[in-house]
Amino acid sequence: MDVILFLVFALFAVACAINVVVQTHPIASAISLIGVMASLAVLYLLLGAEFIAAAQVIVYAGAIMVLFVFVIMLLNAGAESKSGRSLVAQALGVPSLVALLGILAFFVQRLFPRESATHFGGFTGGTAKAVGKALFTTYLLPFEATSILILIAIVGAIVLAYKEMD
Amino acid sequence: MAAVPISWFLTLSAVLFVIGAAGFVFRRNIITVFMSIELMLNAVNLSFVTFAYQFKKVDGHLLALFVMVVAAAEAAVGLAIILTVFKRRPSLNIDEVNSMKN
C-alpha cells in the first residue's frame, strides 16, 4: 500500500515537474507546480509530517501560488518567445543535468542501503504539538529571525510596488 | 508490510531538484524561472522531511518550515521586483533585462 501510494504520487510529481519546465505558457506551469506541491504534501503525510503537509498545502499551494497566478494575470504574460540558444548550451545542457542527477542518485543509493525503509506510522513526532514545542523552545531565535525577515519582505514589497504605482 | 526505502524519497528529491535546475537554466520567461526556484526549494524540503523520518527527530520539519517562510518572503519580494522591471520594459524575457551588464 505504501509503495503504491509512493509510486503514484512520485510519478505524478515528476510528471508535473517536467510539465512546469516544458510548458511555454506560465499559467500552465503554475497549475503544474500546484500539482507537484499537492503530491509532495501526500508524501509528507507518508513520512509522518502532518503539520508540514498542512503547511505545504496552505502556504505553498495556497498563498505563494495565488501570488504567482495573480502576477501572471496582472502582467498578462503570454507564451514565451523562442530565443536563439548558443550551441554550447544545446550540446552540454541536458547531458550535464543527467550527469548531476546520476551523481546524486549514486551517492544516495550508496549512503542509504535498502534496509533503511519507511512505513506509514513509523514516525509520529511530526504533529502540530511536537513542531510547536520545538519551534518555541529550541528554535525560538530562528523563529524570531524569520518574523523579522517576513516584516522586511512586506516592507520591501510595499516599497517596490509603491514606486511602481506612481 | 511493504515498505518504501529511504533512498527512493531522496532520489525523488534529487530528480525534482534537477528538473528545477533545468528550468532555471533553460527557460527565458522570468516568472517560469521563479517557479523553477520554488520547485528546487520543494525538492530540498522533501529531503529535510525524509531525514527527519530517518533520524526520528522533529528538527527536519522545523527546517522545512523555515524554508517555506523564506520562500514566501522571496516570492513576495521577487514578484514585486518583476512588477517594477515590467513597468520599465514591458517584456518578461530574462535576456532583455541586462541593464547591469553594460
Explained architecture:
The complex is a heterodimer of chains A (166) and B (102). With 166 residues, chain A is an all-alpha fold. Chain A has two domains: 78 residues, NADH-ubiquinone/plastoquinone oxidoreductase chain 6, subunit NuoJ (Four Helix Bundle (Hemerythrin (Met), subunit A)), CATH 1.20.120.1200; 40 residues. Chain A is built from six helices and one strand. In chain A, helix 1 packs antiparallel against helix 2. The longest helix of chain A is centred in the middle third of the chain and has 26 residues. Chain B has 102 residues and is an all-alpha fold. Classes of the chains: A mainly alpha (166), B mainly alpha (102). At the A-B interface, helix 1, helix 2, helix 3, helix 4 and strand 1 of A face strand 1, helix 1, helix 2 and helix 3 of B. Strand 1 of chain A pairs antiparallel with strand 1 of chain B, so a sheet runs across the interface.
Topology, please?
The complex is a heterodimer of chains A (166) and B (102).
Chain A: H1 2-22, H2 26-46, H3 50-75, H4 87-111, E1 117-118, H5 128-136, H6 140-165
Helix pairs in contact in A: 1-2, 2-3
Chain B: E1 4-5, H1 6-26, H2 30-55, H3 59-88
